[in-house]
Structure formats: structure tokens, C-alpha cells
Amino acid sequence: MPLTPRSSSGHLSPGPFAGRTLAGLARDLRDGRATATGLAERALDAAAALDPALNAFVTVDAAGALAAARRADAELAAGVDRGPLHGLPVAVKDLIDVAGLPATMGSRHFAGHVPDADAVCVTRLRAAGAVIVGKTTTHEFAYGPTGDRSANGPSRNPRDTGRMSGGSSGGSAAAVAAGVVPLAIGTDTGGSVRIPAALCGVAGFKPAYGAIPADGVFPLSRSLDHVGVLAGGAADCLLAYHCLTSGAVPGGPGPAPARDTTGTAGEAGSPGGPGGEAGGPGGEAGGPVRVAWLDPGCLFDGDRRVVDTVRALLGEVAEVRLPEGFGEEVRETYLAVQSCETAEVHAERLARAPELFDPEVLERLRAAAELPGWRYVRALRARERLAGAVAALFGGHDVIALPTVPIVAPPLDRREIEVAGRPVAVRPALLALTSPWNVFGLPALTVPAGTVAGLPVGLQLVCRPGAEPLLFSTAARVTPA
Amino acid sequence: MPLTPRSSSGHLSPGPFAGRTLAGLARDLRDGRATATGLAERALDAAAALDPALNAFVTVDAAGALAAARRADAELAAGVDRGPLHGLPVAVKDLIDVAGLPATMGSRHFAGHVPDADAVCVTRLRAAGAVIVGKTTTHEFAYGPTGDRSANGPSRNPRDTGRMSGGSSGGSAAAVAAGVVPLAIGTDTGGSVRIPAALCGVAGFKPAYGAIPADGVFPLSRSLDHVGVLAGGAADCLLAYHCLTSGAVPGGPGPAPARDTTGTAGEAGSPGGPGGEAGGPGGEAGGPVRVAWLDPGCLFDGDRRVVDTVRALLGEVAEVRLPEGFGEEVRETYLAVQSCETAEVHAERLARAPELFDPEVLERLRAAAELPGWRYVRALRARERLAGAVAALFGGHDVIALPTVPIVAPPLDRREIEVAGRPVAVRPALLALTSPWNVFGLPALTVPAGTVAGLPVGLQLVCRPGAEPLLFSTAARVTPA
Questions:
Q1: Are residues A147 and A210 in the same domain?
Q2: How many CB atoms lie under 10 A from the CB of residue B63?
Q3: B169 catalytic, yes or no?
Q4: Per-10-residue mean pLDDT for chain B, 481 residues long?
Q5: Statement to judge: residues A169 and A271 lie in one domain
Q6: DSSP string, B100-137
Q7: With an 8 Å Cβ cutoff, are A343 and B373 in contact?
Q8: Complex prediction ipTM
Q9: Chain-chain contact of B341 with A369 (C-beta, under 8 angstroms)
Q10: How many other CB atoms are there within 10 angstroms of residue A31's CB atom?
């Protein structure tokens, strides 16, 4: 396979899985055009070639991946088919336990830590036949949306390696965006799947709270933590989501979405995705999906070019507004809940070995540890009250659409950027449009929505739990095939 | 009726309802030996005579009480019988809204505040035909178990008016103990019904969390707040509890418990209480109630004479122990939950008008407002974990028995007393044996269990939600008839 070195502009050549879909790869495996072992080798080679520029991986498990791939090949040869992820390479965020592999949580506190059991989501990946190729870089303890504070060093954006991947699942996004793997697992507490997916130009899905169990995942903020998936497109996210939840996947390795551009016969399927339930528009009453645009100005005053680019994708749709004051209240609620829950997780580490934290993470943790308890109590009450406003938002609409991140990927390490002559604080900007949905545990999907100044932007689609198929049918309808 | 002045020893002569039961009074009303109007007049007269010594009432509503009593009489005459509370005088803690009467919460912050709607429990009292005679003194905002910090001044113990009633429902306990009313409503966040009931020598019942709705009750700590009842004996508590929950009462105004000592024919009934479900021992499998003694030493090192007096009531029963460390952990959990939730309730008052709080209450609130949020998060987690240990405690036992308070009523305003030559901090002592059960929302009953040095002590019985009848059958069996 060709090596894909870093170009002089910081733009990387695409890896072997760029533009491929899970369904297309699954078809290749079953048609004899590929083997799991071959796919694993391609992923491992791409990691070796690209990771020096990306820093997407903390650990690459060549031996484990090849062994799993050989088992997958043997099973398929013996007629044992574990479904659409069978034999496909996948990367797992380093915050998630994989038995026998280091789990550093991106922190020196966990240097050398090797868990002896798989997280539940990893158990499910293995049961689905997936081949785990390695652990991906996370912002330290997932406590940051920039992806550039980690004991492993910053993960970098494949579109421009001088820019941040976003985080905290930065390595997972970078590995998928660079085509090193077709699928990666991440976690999302305030946007940690969706932010890096959007900044790197891939799809990311944060399911409803608890839909994928978080057992074996190191906590950031327990009432906000979600396990999610990152892949090239929405349909692949849906397919992986199904494998990580019920284990049963509608349609199996069937026709692939049209956006797979590598052009095998089997990959020119219907745009509706892998399952009939997401096979086209269909609102809750069976009618057309009621999509409404939420102008993000009430949540954050970001880059208007990003907003306009995303808005243009949707065409004519209804517009909704958040109630007066909602934006500020939900931001405060998120911050109080997240700060207090995170400080609880790290209280002993903070007391005993503060020097092991990255200085920026330490400073934020110390501030979080000082937030008074009554603020948390009040936030829990606000969360309940605001949930009523959110329910009203979904009274007349099935899917709320807005940008995923209101800016493009900033340069690495920057904490303030200039947008149209104004200073914009990077961390609040990154979190502003994703974190509100974590507060309410709502399913939220980001899909690539074009570029601004050559850098990817994401369209975010949000729904109520139970309406997930509508997210995916909407994504299939509005995003470029 | 005879006035009952304060004796020189600080011991008050008993009021008209001392030693009477609700069932006996109900029988009198229906047999024509009493009228609701007459009972209300006796309660009002007793309040006028005794309250200068007790300070049990913030507001006495003579006009409202007499009007309600006349309606009750007219209804009974017309054949409308609202059940066992019909026409009986009741007092309501000043933390609970009664439409048209001041609700001061014991605080200068609410001087002149008159709510225009009844709390749910008051609505239910009225629907049951009860006659509300007034509002009883509460420790300021119910934030204290001593009952001696209130804008209304301290409530005093009828057994010795130089001693504290306990709190925070001190006025309710004093009014019942002095025989001014046969029934009072209180609230219990860490023992605020049971502590003053025990110190004043009456019965008090804190039902399971949420069993009596707290709507219209000023919050102290929302996840710990319970509405409860105080009366002369356990059977009366059960009867009132039924009226405040289902509205339906087993047995109606039937035979009264034997401990009614005023001797009318109708009042020499079975000791089993008003309902068949509490009519005798009967464990969950229909066998004998499995009562187990919990030595309180693991929770607090109090007055051994109190422990021995209470223990002696039970005779031969099993003994249970709490797991190592449980006592300290549950105390910390209670304090963190209560402090943060209380500070949330008062954050604005604390910022804008701290000078309106009693100085001791202010000092405690300020400390509560500084407790970091991660401690609250941790407490919620501990609460879940400890609930497992508590469930195990009830695995082999239906009812856990222990003293209600490990000391007798201290002198007013004292914060440290001497017990057997050791200094004992009053507030922790008062709360130590009651507050653990609030953490888990368990039903808990206190019944008079004799005296130590002439001062009342209480036996506390605790069960799982659903096993309440066993508390009352146990109380009927073990306490003096």
C-alpha cells in the first residue's frame, strides 16, 4: 500500500479508509475482495505512516489486531458472520478500557495502567467481530474540548496539522478523518465526540444518555457522560450505534449509502442508510420529518460564515427560537454540573498529586473543586426546569438543526482567536452548541457540512430519545451524496 | 374549663387533650358527649393559658377555628361524616402554608407573610374535617434540632419549661405534649418531628419520603424533607397518617388504643390501633414481626441511661449492627446533602439580607454555603451505596429499634452538656439517631418510652416503605398500655 506522508502544507494524504463506508467494506469482505487481516494491515500501516503527523494514537496494538482479524477471517470462512462490523478495524478512545492495553486517560496519573477487563462497549465491539487496532489520544481525562492537553501530546487535525483536532475524542476523530480506520469510539460529555468530528470533517453520533453503557469508561461527569461513535458518514454511525446497543442491525451488510465514493458495485445503494427505519423522511406521525433551524446566536456569537454555510444545506425549513435567557441558563447549568461532578472524580488526585496534571487541566480542576455545592443543587433544579422548555422545543419539530461548532478548527494551543475582528474565546466557542444537549441527554448527530476557508464545518441534528431514525434520515437527505 | 398555669417547678398542668386519643374524641363527638365547637374552645382556652409558658404557637386562629368547628358540628348533625379527624383540633407547624394565616417560617425574613393557598397536607386536613387552631413555632427555617432559634422565640418543653422542646417542630410537640391539641403536623428533615416528640414525651411519625406531599411546605433540604405527624400515641399518628395520605382510614372512629387513660367506655379498645393492618404482630410473611435492636453506640456515644431505658422496653429481641464506618459515612452524607440543599434555598437571602437571620442560623448557613459541590456529588453517591447496606439491615428484620434521641432534653440555649462527666455536643446528639433514616427516606416512628431523671425518652422504630403497619403493631406491643 502507498505510504501517505505529510505534505508541506500540513495537509495529509488520505489513508486507506478515507471515503469508504462500513457497509462497502463489509461487502468487500464477503465478496472476497478483502480480508479482515488485509484491512487490519492497511490500518496498521496507515497508523505507522500518518500518526507521526497526527498523534491520533496512544497505543497501536498490531499483534492484537492481527490476531483478531485472523479470527474474523476464519469465522467468516466457517460461515460465522457476526454482522456488519465483522472484521472491520476500529479505534477506541484511551478513556475506555480495553483489556490488556494501556488506558492512560491522557494523564500521567495513569501512566502504565493496564485494565484487565473490557468496557461494556468494547465487549460489544468484540462480539460484533470488530478488530480493535488501538487506543486514541484523549484530552487529559477528557476534560477539555481542544484535544491539545494530554500526556500523549496534542492530537492534530488531518486537514491542517497545525490546527487542533478538537476534543476530547480528538484522536478518534483524527484517525477516522485521516482514513486510518473507518470507525472509532469516543465519549461525549459536552461535545467530545461531535466537536472533533465537526472540526476534522467526519460524522459523530452521541446517542441518548445511557443508550450505550458507560461501564468501563473513565468518568468525566457522570450525569453528562455519553459513549458515542465517529465514522465517515452518518449511516456508518447509525450502523455502529446499532451494533453497540441491541447488537442487531437492520439490513446487515446491505446496500451502502451513496456517499461512499470509492466505487465498487455494491456501494451505490440507496441514500437512506443501512436500515429501513432510517430509509427516508418520516415524522413521528408517519409524515415528513419536521426539521427546524435553530439560529445559534442565542447560544454563542461565533463565525457567521460557519453559520451561513451550515444553514444553506437545509433549504427552506421552519425556524425555532429558544426562550429568553435559556442560553445563559443552560450554559451555567452545564458548567456547574460538569465542574462539581468532575471535581468529585478527581478530588483525591487533586489533593495528593496535583503536579501530575497538565497545568491547564489542573487550574480548571482547582476552580471546579471550589464551586459551592448549592450551585450544583441549583443546577440540578434548573436542569429539570429547562427540560420543560426543551420538550416544548420538540413539541412541533422532530429534528432541531444548528451548527455543531460555531468556528473552524483553531490553531493548536490557542485559547483566543479573532473572528471578523472580534476576539472569541476558544473553549466556550467549541462547547457552546453541543453541551446544551448533554444536559438533557438528547441524541445528537454531527455530519460534515462543507468547509469555510478550507476547514470543515459540521451540521448538528438533535432529537428526542426514540426519534433517532429521523436524525439519520434527515442527514441522508440534506448532506451531499 | 380549668386553667392550667405554670407551676413553680416549670412543670405545666396538663391541658384538655392530655391522655386523650383521636378515636376517643371522635367517639365523644358522635355520642353527643362533645361538640367540635366545644373541643375548639377548649383548645383555644388551653393555648391562651399555657402558651405564655410554652411559646408553642406563633398564631392562634380563634375565629377560623371556631368557624371550622361550627361547620364540622353542622355537618355531623346533617349526617356528613368526614371520618376520624372530623371536628378535632389540630395545630400546624409555621413552616407549612395555611391560607390566610401568617407563615413566618420562624424567621424575620417572612414577617408579615400570609400565603393565600393551603399546603397539600392542610387541604387534606380540611377535607378530613379537622379544625386548624393555629400555627406552631418552628426553629428558624426548620434549620436546627434545638427549637430555640426562632423569630418567635424558643418553644419550651412542657415537662420542664427551662428545657428545650427540641426541634425544629418544637411548637407542634409542645402543643401536643401539653394537651393543648390532640394532633399536630410537623416536618422532619433530620429528625424534626421525632426529636421534639421524644424530648417532650409524645409520639411522632415521619412517613416514607414523599408519602405526604411537601407542596406548600417551605423547603429545608428537598431530598430529605418529610411531612409528619405528632400525637399522644402511635395509634393516633397512624390514624392521622392515613387521613393525610389516602384519605381513607381503616376502621374509622372505632375502638381506641388502650393507652387513652381518660376512661370513656368507647376508649378501652384493643391495643392494636385503629386498623386491622396494624392490629397485631405479623411479619412480611405473615409470621411474627421480626424486631431487632440496634445499639446506637455506632452512631453516637450518648447517655447510657437513655439507651438502657429504651432497650429495656423491648425484652428479648435480636440485635443488629451497622457495617464498620457506616455511622461516620451516613453522618457526612446527611450533612453534605442537607447543607448544600439548604444553602441553595437561602442563597439570595444570605446575599441580600443576612442580618435578618438569627446569628446562629446565619453562621451555620454561611458554612453550608461554602461546602464545595464535589462533596455533594460524593454524598449522593454514598447515599446510593449506603442504601445497599441499609437494605441488607432489613433483609432479616422487619423493624429496627433504637432510641430516638440519645440524651434527654437539654436546658434551653445550651450547645454542650455533660453526660456522665463527658462533654456532649447537643446538636449532633439530637440528630445522630434520627437523621440516618432521612437519608434513605425510611418510615420512622417515635413513641414515649419512659423517663430518665424525670424527662421523657423515646423509642424509635424504623422500617422499609410498605412495612409501616409493622411499626405500629410493634409500638402497640412494646409500649406501656
A1: yes
A2: 9
A3: no
A4: 46 90 98 98 98 98 98 98 98 98 98 97 98 98 98 97 98 98 98 98 98 98 98 98 71 35 36 35 66 96 97 95 94 98 98 98 98 98 96 94 98 97 97 98 98 98 97 91 53
A5: yes
A6: TS---TTSGGGTT---SS--HHHHHHHHTT-EEEEEE-
A7: yes
A8: 0.89
A9: no
A10: 11
Q: What is the 3-state secondary structure (H, E, C) of chain A?
A: CCCCCECCCCCECCCCCCCCCHHHHHHHHHHCCCCHHHHHHHHHHHHHHHHHHHCCEEEECHHHHHHHHHHHHHHHHCCCCCCCCCCCEEEEECCECCCCCCCCCCCHHHCCCCCCCCCHHHHHHHHCCCEEEEEECCCHHHCCCCCCCCCCCCCEECCEEEEECCCCCHHHHHHHHCCCCCEEEEEECCCCCHHHHHHHCCEEEECCCCCCCCCCECCCCCCCCEEEEEECCHHHHHHHHHHHCCCCCCCCCCCCCCCCCCCCHHHCCCCCCCCHHHCCCCCCCCCCCCEEEECHHHCCCCCHHHHHHHHHHHCCCEEECCCCCHHHHHHHHHHHHHHHHHHHHHHHHHHHCHHHCCHHHHHHHHHHHHCEHHHHHHHHHHHHHHHHHHHHHCCCCCEEEEECCCCCCCECCCCEEEECCEEEEHHHHHHHCCHHHHHCCCCEEEEEEEEECCEEEEEEEECCCCCHHHHHHHHHHHCCC
Q: How far apart are CA A30 and CA A73, in angstroms?
A: 10
Same structural domain, B363 and B468? no
A168 is catalytic: yes
A369 at B interface, C-beta within 8 A:
yes
Three-state secondary-structure class, residue B410: coil
Give the domain range for residue B7. Answer: 1-323+381-481
Are residue B360 and residue B386 in the same domain, yes or no? no
Report how far residue A62's alpha carbon sits from residue A68's, in angstroms, rounded to the nearest whole number: 10
Yes or no: say if A114 and A103 are a contact pair by the CB < 8 Å rule.
Answer: yes
pTM: 0.90
Residues A372 and A385 in one domain: no
Nearest-angstrom CA–CA distance, A188 and A96:
12
Do residues A313 and A331 share a domain? no
What's the mean pLDDT in A298-325?
Answer: 95
Same domain for A100 and A115: yes
**Domain final residue pick, A346, A379, A412:** A379
Beta-bridge partner residues of B92: B135, B185
Domain boundary residue among B309, B344, B379? B379
**Residue B73 is part of a domain; what is its CATH number?**
3.90.1300.10
Q: Which helix (H) or strand (E) holds B242?
A: helix B234-244
Cell numbers at A117, concatenated: 477487563
Whole-angstrom Cα distance, residue A70 to residue A344? 43
- The rounded distance, in Å, linking the Cα atoms of B75 and B70 is 9
* Tally of CA atoms within 13 A in the half-sphere of B94 that contains its CB: 39
Distance from CA of A337 to the nearest CA of B (A): 9
Q: Which of A107, A169, A172, A192 is catalytic?
A: A192
Residue of B nearest to A378 (CA): B344
Pairing of strands B399-403, B291-294: parallel
The size of chain A, in residues, is 481
Digit-coded pLDDT (tens) for A215-267: 999 999 999 999 999 999 999 999 999 999 964 333 333 333 333 333 333 33
**Cβ B371–A370 below 8 Å, yes or no?**
no
Whether A270 sits among the annotated catalytic residues: the reply is no
Contact A156, A174 (CB under 8 A): yes
Hey, are the CB atoms on B339 and A369 less than 8 Å from each other?
A: no
A145/A214 same-domain check: yes
Q: What is the pLDDT of residues B85-103, one digit of tens each?
A: 999 999 999 999 999 999 9
3-state SS class at B63? helix
Number of domains chain B is built from: 2
- From the list B150, B155, B165, B168, the catalytic residue is B168
